[in-house]
Amino acid sequence: MELTGSQILLESLQKEGVDTVFGYPGGAVINIYDDLFDSPLEHVLTRHEQAAVHAADGYARSTGKVGVVIATSGPGATNTVTGIATAYMDSIPMVIITGQVPTPLIGNDAFQEADMCGITRPCTKHNFLVQDIKDLARTIKEAFYIARSGRPGPVLIDFPKDIQIAKTKYKYPEKVNLRGYKPTYEGNTRQIAKAAKMFLQAKRPVLYVGGGINLSAANEELIKLSEMTQTPVTTTLMAMSGFPQNHPLALGMLGMHGTFYANMSVTECDLLIAVGARFDDRVTGRIDAFAKKSKVIHIDIDPTSIKKNVAVDLPIVGDLKDVLGKLGENLAESPDELAKLAENTADWRAIIGEWKQTHPMAYKQSDTIIKPQFVIEKIRELTADDAIISTEVGQHQMWTAQFFQFRHPRTFLTSGGLGTMGFGLPSALGAQVAFPGRQVVDISGDGSFQMNSQELATLVQYRLPVKIAILNNNFLGMVRQWQQMFFDKRYSQTCMELPIDFVKLAEAYGAAGLRCEKVSDVEGTIKKALETPGPVLMEFKVAREENVLPMVPAGKGIHEMVLAS
Amino acid sequence: MKHTISVLVENEFGVLSRISGLFSGRGFNIESLSVAPTLEPNISRMTLVTTGDDRILEQINKQLNKLISTIKVVDFTGEAYVERELALIKVNAEADSRAEALRIVDIFRASVVDVTPKTYTIQITGAPAKIDGLIELLRPMGIKEIVRSGPIVMGRGAKGVTG
Questions:
Q1: Residue A177 contacts B where some CB pair is shorter than 8 Å
Q2: A107 at the B interface (CB within 8 A)?
Q3: ipTM computed for the complex
């Protein structure tokens, strides 16, 4: 059967199990949108291409499936770049299809032409320019395979308009054959045996877990490993939902805004087992002071992550699910030694217990002014265990990581690596599309919210009941905090002078808006929002100059924290 | 330390910029780079010369391998290998220096591939150090133009590097 390029695209998406795409039409994809009109694929029309990518990203982060985006050529395509870079830094599987001018015009500075393969080369796992209709089906197959396998990431397909119209015989390939791409899934058995040995000899072990834990769905294996060895677990921003934060062995987040006990544990440990993490500078602080009393085992599916930033005593390349599973099995073979390990490490857990007592995660509650941390704790209290929380970037994001006790994998959507303001609202939108029945809350700041506030329209149009909690301090809070601490309170361009009426803004789009100015109203406001059908925006007027603490100043070791008094 | 690395890549759209972009984006050094197809027309072989400590070289190696278009990476450092570079040098050759230039060409087993009344164009192949040596000797006569291919390398012995 002969199909056009755009029909082949839509057929192939369905072959890949795609049910929903996020996008925005335009001249260079008009044929695709024409075929979409008759296709069973759902399409969500966002109000900006950047938001379409974040929405597909939120869909991918919450489900584990590949997020799919369609955008037109030129500005439509360049608008996707921030979203693609966000997904790339956090290893999120995505396929982005951008329209391109017809192949004879490529390179001629044609109307709405942009060299998308050139622009996105450094922020995609791979990208393709389709130059021949005969390559199209294979390209789509490869794009999905590359996006979701190994260390996942976004893949862009630049799809010229003449190839969307051209026809060819359609047959979707069964298999991919990429001779240059063979990710290692199974960990080396001997390395795993060595790791088990190192584990059993440790006196002060810590598991340092990154976003890979959710990507590989190795959460059960991690819980099992930490419980059988009685090893405390600290999680990065990307892994806060990867290990239940109410677990007795949970240490919370480490790094720049990590808990006192997590940072001290890493500083004092004698064995650091890094699991699907990449020793980011926000985690390590001054690198030569990081875990320097410790041997390091590093488990990751991406060999480039290993020994990139720190020396490693034992590298294991492989899928976490496989490696952690086998490490657990290996250890389970020596129950006597495991019992001895628990005994040998009892003092260590006692020391950590003391740290937790002396320096718990806390803030000074107030009767008169709403503390942002209090709002976050209340949202936790009033939402279901499996509620999906997204954030933008800044203070509210760190407070959410610190105070929202995540319990289920893939319930925390946040831009960790790139730190993209404006990510939270569209990613919440994408998650709500994936899970219409679950509670989805975007915890936001007044600054970040305004970077993609136009997506209120999308929420209303598709009746997506996302709840938005703006912690409004009328500042770009995180930058203001830095200015207060390191720039002598010179608040250069961080005060949002214009007070926005967020409630009216929500209402203008047809969403509900609730304002909360009193501590005693916080609970009632959240309850009301959760009970109200459809999208609801809550605006909390919070303490304006509240700081995120603990904080490790730039250039310091992570044990050198500024603490909350 | 200097490393000479061969990279077998898919001979496809944009592959050169994937490699060069990787080096510039991550701040790796690239001293020279030469590319051409192999016996298999869909595989190209790149030879690149780079510098860095062990940690950087490990990253270069891993990052090159991580590219989907990369089929194989071989670092020849510490191996026995043959290294050759080609250079074309246009040198002033008038009156007194005309005979001297030919003598030097002879000593280096180079050849003259183009002649004008005022210049010779000299072709030389060899290890980069040999080419450096010839250039030093010709420099006093006045070099008008020079093109170097950058080195290409091949391991010694019977084994071949293929995709």
A1: no
A2: no
A3: 0.91
